[in-house]
Amino acid sequence: MRATTYFDDYALGDRYVTDSVTVTEGQILRFAREYDTQLFHTNVAAADESHFGGLIGSGFQTLNLSFALFFKLQLVQPAAVGGAGIDGLRWRKPLRPGDTIHVECEVIDLVPSASRPDRGTVRMRHDTFNQDGDVIMTLECLHILQTRAGAAAS
Amino acid sequence: MRATTYFDDYALGDRYVTDSVTVTEGQILRFAREYDTQLFHTNVAAADESHFGGLIGSGFQTLNLSFALFFKLQLVQPAAVGGAGIDGLRWRKPLRPGDTIHVECEVIDLVPSASRPDRGTVRMRHDTFNQDGDVIMTLECLHILQTRAGAAAS
């Protein structure tokens, strides 16, 4: 497999599939009590009576778990130079206790920096799937990466 | 202060300022080891040698802490009906150990649902500031909320 660390290592259409992770009710409750105190994330009885019909994980937990899986691919290190971002994040379905999720990623744009020839931006689409094959979250993320020449000079 | 729970409670230009929170080096390391294993988030020595010149928090930690502060405003409950999203998230400056951050929010668009008169989407801009007044993260988020009439009928 081609190394995919620096900006010039990436090609349009490159695809990556992460490992998967299963989330428990306890993990959903712990995360929500710290970071997202909406009742349908923190209180099982209230969630059962909500229109969700049961406890659902915070969308930010879906996001965190998805990027934890992505970073474990070890793609963008050590070339990442920060300043990145996310566009078009949509939570399409709830994360529920017992769900097993993974992420499928595709390179959809490659933009050399206009001002700095030693770096460029890789835009990837990330889709997070549950065990039923449903996309529960989709987004585009930007990684600002050094080029091989830029890394060699730094 | 006007109650701001349902879609029809919001007006363009409404602004909210959250409480603040201070992040420690220990919190940065713990978060990163679970969710964002890039070296400049997990290893103090490696971070000192990186172009960041020291440990920085994961952008996802900035995001989580910012929304934890937002949800504590108790604005959008219990009218939130899910399916929301985020556009244009950009991490502008690093989160560093000892930083104290807060979020300033403004309603920038209100879109009644074309298909369901019982709900609408509130678009807010969120800017996260550090103690020096620098914006370290900016984004637009979407909240799909019930109307008062929709909530009364459900």
Whole-number total of structural domains of chain A: 1
Overall mean pLDDT of chain A stands at 90
Q: Which oligomeric form is depicted?
A: homodimer
CATH H-level superfamily of chain A: Hotdog Thioesterase
Distance between the termini of chain A: 26 Å
Count, helices of chain A:
5
Q: Which blocks of ≥5 consecutive residues of chain A have pLDDT under 50?
A: none
Question: By helix and strand content of chain A, what is the structural category?
Answer: alpha+beta
Name the beta content range of chain A.
25-35%
Strand order in the largest sheet of chain A? 1-3-4-5-2
Choose one word for the global shape of chain A. elongated
Q: How many strand elements of chain A?
A: 5
**What's the CATH architecture name of chain A?**
Roll
Plain-language structure description:
- Chain A is of the alpha+beta class.
- The first copy, chain A, has 5 helices and 5 strands.
- Chain A has helices spanning 25-35, 39-42, 44-49, 59-72, 148-153; strands spanning 15-22, 85-91, 100-112, 119-129, 135-146.
- A 5-stranded antiparallel beta sheet of chain A has the order 1-3-4-5-2.
- In chain A, β3 (100-112) and β4 form a beta hairpin.
- The longest helix of chain A is centred in the middle third of the chain and has 14 residues, at 59-72.
- The radius of gyration of chain A is 18 Å and the shape is elongated.
- The mean pLDDT of chain A is 90.
- Chain A binds chain B through residues 34-39, 50-52, 56, 59-60, 63-65, 67-68, 71-72, 76-78, 80-92, 94, 139, 154, and chain B through 34-39, 50-52, 56, 59-60, 63-65, 67-68, 71-72, 76-78, 80-92, 94, 139, 154.
- β2 (85-91) of chain A pairs antiparallel with β2 of chain B, so a sheet runs across the interface.
